[in-house]
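Duplicate of #3305? Posting structure anyway:
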């Protein structure tokens, strides 16, 4: 399979429009060696065939499609390589791009869990709004590990795992998480036998999550924050990374420790990186620490073949 990183930043992107933190100011001024990044999304397609699966519909989706010719194969007057959309959660950075797909001629094939479907009909009613345009053909993602496929994305099979993370602030269960607010997905390619585990919002590594990571050839996991108190230390928030459903990379029980337990051959990649995270600075000590641990940092436009 071929995985294209469309957007590697967390909500807000990098640089974030209103932010003058060291990273955002530095990349804007050109004084920091760092790449600008759009908000969280990947596109996965088989080795043969144009059509694939869009994971998350980022607010930056139109820019992402323009930047990646494989998303527009131009086989007809109106065309797309997006066979269907799979949502990892119902947050703004993963769901608002759905508005931008409204010009489709047929209902948008969409896979999401029941709590995400509810949030996107009530708190942020994009699915109801789309009924006035192309409409949505919604498919329910089960949380019991039942495999599912997106017709058109030949040979790719998917399994979801509920994660400990957080629903969006407009969700009725923001402070009382329910299974399915956030998921991780294992994508398996029948042709190559390869598997990837994708979890851009991961608050804790349960035994089931570790098993999914350990069974994959590549993991694309939560790279939001370096430290638990990153936003507090900068005076930008009162909440820790864990409070908002993101496991930080550094420290005891952090993502670096978990990734170190995986086999050396597993590709380890961080995605959904917040603009405050020091790993965005390619000359930082934190970035060097990741490199020494064999951990890659996703950038927009990267392609991973498995
Ligand atoms: C999150 O995953 O916590 C979101 O990126 C937050 C947001 O979109 O504001
Ligand atoms: Mn997010
Ligand atoms: Zn910033």
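Output from current build:
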């Amino acid at each position: 399979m071929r995985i294209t990183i469309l957007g590697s930043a967390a909500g807000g992107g990098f640089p974030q429009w209103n932010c003058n933190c060291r990273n955002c100011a530095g990349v804007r001024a050109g004084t920091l060696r760092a790449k600008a990044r759009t908000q969280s999304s990947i596109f996965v397609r088989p080795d043969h065939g144009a059509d694939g699966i869009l994971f998350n519909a980022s607010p930056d989706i139109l820019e992402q499609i323009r930047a990646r010719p494989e998303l527009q194969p131009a086989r007809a007057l109106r065309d797309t390589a997006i066979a269907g959309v799979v949502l990892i959660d119902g947050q703004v950075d993963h769901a608002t791009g759905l508005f931008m797909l409204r010009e489709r001629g047929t209902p948008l094939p969409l896979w999401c869990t029941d709590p995400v479907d509810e949030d996107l009909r009530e708190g942020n009613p994009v699915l109801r709004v789309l009924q006035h345009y192309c409409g949505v053909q919604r498919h329910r993602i089960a949380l019991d590990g039942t495999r599912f496929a997106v017709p058109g994305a030949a040979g790719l099979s998917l399994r979801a795992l509920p994660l400990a993370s957080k629903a969006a602030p407009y969700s009725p269960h923001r402070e009382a998480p329910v299974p399915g607010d956030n998921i991780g997905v294992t994508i398996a390619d029948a042709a190559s036998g390869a598997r990837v585990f994708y979890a851009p919002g991961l608050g804790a590594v349960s035994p089931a999550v570790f098993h999914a990571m350990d069974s994959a050839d590549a993991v694309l996991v939560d790279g939001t924050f370096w430290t638990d108190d990153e936003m507090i230390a900068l005076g930008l928030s009162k909440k820790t990374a864990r409070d908002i459903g993101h496991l930080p990379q550094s420290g005891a029980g952090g993502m670096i420790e978990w990734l170190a337990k995986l086999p050396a051959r597993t590709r380890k990649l961080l995605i959904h990186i917040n603009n405050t995270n020091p790993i965005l600075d390619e000359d930082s000590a934190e970035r060097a620490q990741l490199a020494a641990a064999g951990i890659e940092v996703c950038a927009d436009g990267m392609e991973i073949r498995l």
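Confirmed duplicate; merging threads. The mean pLDDT is 97. The domain at 2-301 is CATH 3.60.15.10 (Metallo-beta-lactamase; Chain A).
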